[in-house]
Request: fold
Amino acid sequence: MQHPVQQDTYSCGVMVMMMAKAVMEAFPKLPNMEFGTTEEEMAEERTAMALELLEASVFDAENNCSMCAKEESPGSALTDWVRC
Reply:
């Protein structure tokens, strides 16, 4: 199966996810894997993936800690907490 090659030492996870997505979307046919692999393109894809995951989650950024997802601060309910 022909596919793009990673150009840096830290985007393997992004590449694997992009390749898996291409395989799933083309199934049962073989995918046509054509996507850019520059550092900038990988950064853009990483951001797009993060946004897609967050939008699909039930996480409420207004009421949940961005680190642990708890709905209440560890201290007083009136604390303007710095998210854990």
The mean pLDDT is 82.
